[in-house]
C-alpha cells in the first residue's frame, strides 16, 4: 500500500484510553458538505470546517452517560445516534448546528436493565437515501443464562416523525438503504425472530424477503450491503460471505474464516463487514476465537483480513487490516477500514487506517499511535477518529483523542 500522507488533525478533548479488549463503539464521524462532524464519547457533536479545521459549531448531549456511536447525512442536516439511557437520535442543521428534532428510541426498545454501558439502548446504525432517515436501535437484557434483545428499525421524515417502525426480539447490527429497499442485518437471534437478514420496502416498511444462513445458535449475520436486486452479507452463522439474488436466492458463497485446526485447537473468526458494488464485494473478518472457549493463544490464519471478490464470487485479492475493525467507511467502490487494537498480540505497529478499492484491493494506508475507531469517506478525502489506548501488559498510553482529515494521495 502507498502512504496516505500526513493528515491534518484536531484534538477532541479528554477520553479514558481504550484497553486491550474492545469496549464497543463510542465515537462517530461523517463528512457533510464543507464540514467534518464528529460524535464523541462524551455525547457531544462537533463540526469542523474541512478547509481550516476551525470549529464551526458544537452541541452537547443532555445525558451524562451517553456517547455518539453513529452518524449520517440527511438532507441539509446531520443525524447522530447515541448509546445511552434514552438511545436518542438527534438531527442537527448542518450549517448552524441548531437541533431540529430528537427521538428517544428507549420509548420503543425499553429502558436499560442496568446502568452499565452494555445494557444501554444502542443506536447501532443510521443511513439515508435522501428522502428518509433510517435508524436501527436495540437494547439487551440478561437474566441468569437467558439473554434477550428488543429492537426497532425506523424510517423518519425530515420533521422527525416515524413513517414506519419494524420491531423484533433480535439484535440488529447494520442497515443499508438504496432508495427502494432497506436491508437489516441481525447478528443475534435468541428469540422468536429467526432471520439474519430482512429486506424491507423502504416506502412502507413491509417485509419484502428474509434470509438466514440456517445455522444453529444465535449468531446469524454481521453486515449487509444491497447490490442489484439482491444483497451481499457477511455470515456470523457459518463464517462465510454470500451473494444473494432476488428474493434471497443464493448466487454464491465463499469460506472466509471457518473453523480451522491450529495446534490442538479449532479456531474461527467472524466475518464482521461487507461492502459490494457492481465490480465485486469486500469482506472483513474480526478476532480469533476457539470452539473450546473465548480464550486462545493462537491466531486464525484469516483473522483481521480484507477479502476482495469478483461479481462471480472468485477471490481477487486479500490484505491484512492489522486489528479489529468496528465499522467500514464506504464511498462507491472505495472502502476504508479503521484498525483498532489487536487484543491478543497487542502490536501497536499495526494501528491505523487502510483503504481499498473493491475491484483492485491495494490503496493508501495511514499509521497512527492510537487506535482508529471510526471513519468516513467522501470523494478523495477521509475522516477518522483516533483514540488513545493502553495495553494491560505494558501500561504505555499511545495516541490521543483526535479527528484526522486527509486524502489517499498517489497510488
From TrEMBL:
Regions annotated as coiled coil: none
Basic and acidic residues: bias regions: 1-11
InterPro entries xref list: PQQ_b-propeller_rpt, PQQ_rpt_dom, Quinoprotein_ADH-like_sf, WD40/YVTN_repeat-like_dom_sf
Region spans: Disordered: 1-24
Domain Pyrrolo-quinoline quinone repeat stretches: 152-258
Stored Pfam families: PQQ_2
Protein name from the UniProt record: PQQ-binding-like beta-propeller repeat protein
Amino acid at each position: 500500500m502507498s502512504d496516505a500522507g500526513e493528515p491534518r488533525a484536531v484534538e477532541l478533548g479528554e477520553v479514558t484510553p481504550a484497553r486491550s479488549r474492545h469496549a464497543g463503539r463510542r465515537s462517530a464521524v461523517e463528512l457533510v458538505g464543507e464540514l467534518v462532524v464528529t460524535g464523541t464519547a462524551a455525547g457531544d457533536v462537533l463540526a469542523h470546517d474541512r478547509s481550516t479545521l476551525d470549529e464551526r459549531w458544537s452541541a452537547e448531549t443532555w445525558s451524562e452517560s451517553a456517547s455518539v456511536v453513529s452518524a449520517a447525512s440527511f438532507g441539509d442536516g446531520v443525524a447522530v445516534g447515541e448509546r445511552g439511557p434514552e438511545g436518542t437520535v438527534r438531527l442537527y442543521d448542518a450549517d448552524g448546528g441548531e437541533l431540529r428534532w430528537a427521538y428517544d428510541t428507549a420509548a420503543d426498545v425499553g429502558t436499560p436493565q442496568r446502568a452499565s454501558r452494555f445494557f444501554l439502548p444502542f443506536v447501532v446504525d443510521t443511513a439515508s437515501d435522501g428522502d428518509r432517515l433510517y435508524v436501527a436501535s436495540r437494547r439487551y437484557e440478561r437474566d441468569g443464562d437467558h439473554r434477550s434483545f428488543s429492537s426497532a428499525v425506523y424510517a423518519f421524515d425530515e420533521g422527525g416523525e416515524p413513517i414506519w417502525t419494524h420491531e423484533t426480539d433480535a439484535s440488529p447490527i447494520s442497515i443499508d438503504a438504496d432508495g427502494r429497499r432497506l436491508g437489516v442485518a441481525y447478528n443475534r437471534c435468541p428469540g422468536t425472530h429467526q432471520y439474519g437478514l430482512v429486506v424491507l420496502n423502504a416506502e412502507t416498511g413491509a417485509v419484502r424477503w428474509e434470509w438466514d444462513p440456517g445455522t444453529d445458535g444465535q449468531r446469524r449475520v454481521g453486515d449487509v450491503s444491497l447490490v442489484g436486486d439482491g444483497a451481499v452479507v457477511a455470515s456470523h452463522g457459518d463464517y462465510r460471505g454470500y451473494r444473494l439474488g432476488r428474493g434471497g436466492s443464493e448466487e454464491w458463497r465463499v469460506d472466509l474464516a471457518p473453523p480451522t485446526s491450529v495446534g490442538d485447537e479449532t479456531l474461527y473468526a467472524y466475518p464482521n463487514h461487507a461492502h459490494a458494488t457492481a465490480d465485486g464485494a469486500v469482506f472483513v473478518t474480526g478476532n480469533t476465537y476457539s470452539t473450546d472457549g473465548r480464550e486462545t493463544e493462537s491466531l486464525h490464519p484469516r483473522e483481521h483480513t480484507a477479502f476482495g471478490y469478483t461479481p462471480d464470487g472468485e477471490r481477487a485479492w486479500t490484505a491484512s487490516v492489522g486489528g479489529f475493525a468496528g465499522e467500514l467507511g464506504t464511498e462507491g467502490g472505495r472502502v476504508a477500514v479503521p484498525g483498532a487494537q489487536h487484543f491478543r498480540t497487542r502490536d501497536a505497529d499495526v494501528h491505523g487506517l487502510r483503504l481499498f478499492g473493491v475491484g483492485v484491493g491495494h490503496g493508501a494506508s495511514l499509521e497512527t499511535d492510537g487506535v482508529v475507531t471510526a471513519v468516513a469517506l467522501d470523494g478523495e478525502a477521509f475522516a477518522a477518529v483516533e483514540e488513545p489506548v493502553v495495553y494491560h501488559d505494558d501500561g504505555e498510553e499511545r495516541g490521543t483523542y483526535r479527528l484526522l482529515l486527509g486524502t489517499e494521495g498517489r497510488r
